[in-house]
Amino acid sequence: METIRSVKTREDAIRLLTVALHHEWAVSFEYVVHAYSMPKAKFFYEDPVLKQTTDVRGQTIQIGIDEMYHALQLAVTLARFGVDPGFGTDEVVRFPRILDNLRQDKMTEDLVTDLYQSSGIEPGAFPEIENMVWNVSADEVRHSAQFEAMIAALEAAGAAEAASFRPHPDRVRREDLRQLHALGRLENEAMHRYLKHVILFHEHQDLSQRLFKNSIGHMRHWDKLSGLLVRLNDVVALENAEIDAQGIERSRRPMPLDYPGTDRLSALATLPGLERDLAARYEDALRLDLPEDIRAQLRLHLALTREHVFTQDRLLANARRIKGLA
């Protein structure tokens, strides 16, 4: 991560926001991937902030959600500068051991806390950005303390060698696993495509909030699909990753970088087809011989996707009715 110690000009502010955004996009993926690479309700720690015994996996997921919100704040701020924030990320890493993933998570929290708190924003130059940076850094301080407590708990429990989940050996041959992975990739893409449009229309409160609602729906679906893969003895994939001799996965492109749509009509026109594609894929998956609990979860996803189809059809039709709408 680039070190920034002075922010005086518009260009300095854009550089700070961009460096921070690349971090936040990365960890919003990394933490969820790490969470679904470990068992649910097996490792617990005493949370220093929540003041209660807490599931390591569950809290790691929650921290990943925090980071997605941070990324959105930074991206909207860049858009207000007239800059396309994009979806570039820092490197995302998954280790063969759970403990190493948690150590990676704490290290990245400490790095970004230093970036935020030592950025040297000129007093009075960008007061709203300065306030946002300190607010976000407070979350990062909390996250670091929580990861530190998780690490200590695993070490104390003798779980330092506990292994991350590995891919099912028949992943590429099993139709159920192939379809669930494909659904996960498309849900991930849908979440970020909607977020692009939330950023694009950040000044249009009604439209941006409606699109943000759908983005959250797709984020939850990706999250749930990751859990279903664990249920089938597989693990969520780290997209476009290279794996070294030690089994460490590294990716600089865990999600697509480009999404269609540059104005209201062209953006809205891309979304009904995306939702219909998802609905058709869920219908295909429900024809497979899957356990009933997995089928029940997929039916919930399909129902919400059909709601999205209805909503996006109407949003596009309404926009086409209005003369002069940009």
Structure at a glance:
By secondary structure, the chain is mainly alpha-helical. The chain contains eight helices and five strands. The protein has helices at residues 10-35, 56-80, 98-117, 127-156, 175-200, 205-231, 264-285, 292-321; strands at residues 44-46, 53-55, 92-94, 242-243, 249-251.
Description:
- The protein is mainly α and 326 residues long.
- It has 2 domains: 10-156, Ferritin, core subunit, four-helix bundle (Ferritin, Up-down Bundle); 175-234 and 260-321, Ferritin (Up-down Bundle), CATH 1.20.1260.10.
- The protein is built from 8 helices and 5 strands; from the N terminus they run αββαβααααββαα.
- It has helices at 10-35, 56-80, 98-117, 127-156, 175-200, 205-231, 264-285, 292-321, and strands at 44-46, 53-55, 92-94, 242-243, 249-251.
- Strands 3-5-4 form a 3-stranded antiparallel β-sheet. A two-stranded antiparallel ribbon has the order 1-2.
- The two termini are 37 Å apart.
- The model has no long low-confidence stretch (mean pLDDT 96).
